[in-house]
Design goal:
This protein is α+β, with helices and mostly antiparallel strands. It is built from 10 helices and 11 strands. 38% of the residues lie in helices and 25% in strands.
Length: 312
């Protein structure tokens, strides 16, 4: 019996991770996006429905992250079947949590399973990057790769993918707060310019090397010293009111460190264990309420070992 519908889930991702601009990322357990793929008699990809997006995401299959990724997956596999997608957004839009990547990752995993494909990780990543590049003003492997592979990853080179899987120390917990703000990725990247002072570059790659070593040795003290972004955060900080105070609240409550997730406005903190994570979440929520106001969303999660996967 031929399976006619497959549903896949892909998680939110924290990218950059302070000193790892465009190369480091990891997935959370939740939230995430869900994509259902249905076989059709019409070649190509169409969209049946998009749910929980407030009508803001393009319904045109040629302009939608998930459908473009799905089409790329079909092309890579040489599949002739037609596919229709139902996309359910579990991630807030323009949040810095890899929303475009989650939709693309869920789409390629669902389509691959639906048509009986046996795509490699590199093929899944390649197809998802094509879709995510449309939605985020450029393809960002530090969201796509963890959304597909799971775990803490370093993308040494995106095309062809050269993926370095990093260990996750026992207990390491992530807190993410999404304030009542939106920051478009393309606009946030425009703030970065095209040059970096040498002293900032040296500081950044020193921290990145130390962070990788800290993960391997489970050295939380070194990890705390390494969670510093000398390139992107200083240029984007003005987009998030009270960022310094929110980060201070996280560290004062016991976080190892805190920085902007992706291009923002979400802010993440890493903690030694879940109990500290819960305290940090309370402190960050209170700080965001004071500095920004509105309705924020706070998540506490381990670093998920699973990326996008079939759920039905």
């Amino acid at each position: 019996m031929t399976v006619r519908v497959v549903t896949a889930f892909a998680p939110a991702t924290v990218s950059n991770v302070a000193c790892g601009f465009d190369v480091l990322g990891f997935p959370m357990e939740e939230p995430g996006d869900t994509v259902s793929a249905r076989l059709t008699d019409t070649p190509g990809v169409q969209i049946d429905a998009i749910l929980s997006d407030g009508g803001r995401i393009p319904r045109d299959p040629e302009k939608n992250t998930a459908s473009v990724a799905a089409k790329a997956m079909l092309d890579i596999l040489g599949a002739k079947q037609g596919v229709a997608l139902t996309i359910t957004k579990g991630l807030p839009l323009s949040s810095g949590l890899g929303g475009s990547a989650a939709s693309a990752a869920a789409a390629v995993v669902a389509v691959n399973a639906l048509v009986g494909g046996n795509a490699s990780v590199d093929q899944l990543v390649a197809a998802a990057l094509i879709g995510e590049g449309l939605g985020a003003g450029g393809a960002h492997p530090d969201n796509i790769v963890p959304a597909i592979c799971g775990g803490f990853v370093l993308v040494r080179h995106p095309d062809p993918p050269d993926i370095v899987r990093l260990p996750v120390p026992n207990g390491l917990t992530c807190v993410v707060i999404h304030p009542d703000l939106e920051i478009e990725t393309a606009k946030a990247r425009a703030l970065l310019g095209t040059t970096v002072p040498l002293k900032d570059a040296v500081r950044q790659w020193a921290n990145l090397g130390a962070l990788v070593d800290a993960l391997h040795r489970g050295d939380f003290d070194l990890l705390a010293r390494s969670l510093e972004d000398s390139i992107a955060e200083p240029r984007r900080a003005a987009l998030i009111p009270g960022l310094a105070n929110i980060k201070k609240a996280a560290v004062d409550a016991g976080a190892l460190g805190s920085s902007i997730s992706g291009s923002g406005p979400s802010i993440f903190a890493l903690c030694r264990n879940r109990a500290i994570g819960d305290r940090v979440a309370e402190a960050m929520t209170a700080a965001v309420r004071k500095e920004i106001g509105g309705q924020s969303q706070t998540y506490v999660s381990s670093i998920s070992s699973r990326g996008a996967h079939v759920i039905g």
